[in-house]
Design a protein that fits this description.
mainly beta; five-stranded parallel beta sheet
Length: 209
């Protein structure tokens, strides 16, 4: 069994906004803002680099606590990675030795903001990242699923759009009004038949002597 986690209409901030450890999570994040800000002291060896969405592995090698078999779905989310100390802050980080995890990104209102080249770093094994919508800071063509492509926008960002042209809805057939009912001609009343001409008295004189 997996642990179910649903996040909606939320804002999460931190060194990492979503930092997962353990096995078999199913995480769905919708209509939310995830901000990962790196203000840790600069480390030239990269030890203080991090990410907004992190699927963890114990990089110290002291434990076997690594994320495996987790699913993360991001739908219409804003994800922002910032750093003010020179440490590399990725949007998505699969830390080694995480394994067999998946991240799916979808939704026309999805927006990822990060420094160029820091969209995703995958230090694990068998992890996957797929995209079927959204706006990104650099070219993410390598992650687009079949039927989608990454295009340069006028403002310098990159948008993932469907390659299947939209089929316009067929117009509804106009409703043909029924033929109006023609009222029947009123029945012309029959002309009354008058009585026959009355017979008058017989003409002639009465006889008599």
């Amino acid at each position: 069994t997996s642990t179910q986690l649903s996040i909606k209409n939320s804002t999460i901030r931190g060194w990492g906004a979503l930092n997962l450890w353990g096995d078999r999570y199913d995480v769905v994040v919708e209509d939310s803002t995830l901000i990962g800000h790196n203000d840790k002291p600069y480390n030239a060896d990269g030890w203080n680099g991090f990410g907004v969405i992190v699927l963890e592995g114990d990089t110290t090698g002291k434990t076997d606590d690594h994320v495996t078999g987790c699913s993360v779905k991001l739908i219409n989310c804003t994800v922002k990675a910032t750093s003010d100390t020179g440490n590399l802050q990725k949007a998505i980080l699969f830390n080694g030795p995480s394994a067999s995890n998946s991240v799916e990104i979808s939704g026309d209102r999805t927006n990822f903001i990060y420094d160029e080249g820091l969209f995703c770093v995958n230090n694990g094994d068998g992890n996957s990242l797929t995209i079927s919508g959204g706006t990104f800071s650099d070219d993410v063509s390598a992650y687009c699923i079949d039927g989608f492509e990454c295009k340069l926008n006028d403002d310098g960002s990159f948008g993932v759009v469907s390659t299947t042209p939209e089929v316009p809805d067929e117009p509804e057939e106009p409703v043909v009004p029924e033929d109006p009912t023609v009222p029947e001609d009123p029945t012309t009343p029959e002309t009354p038949v008058g009585p026959s001409n009355p017979s008058g008295p017989s003409s002639g004189s009465e006889g008599g002597a």
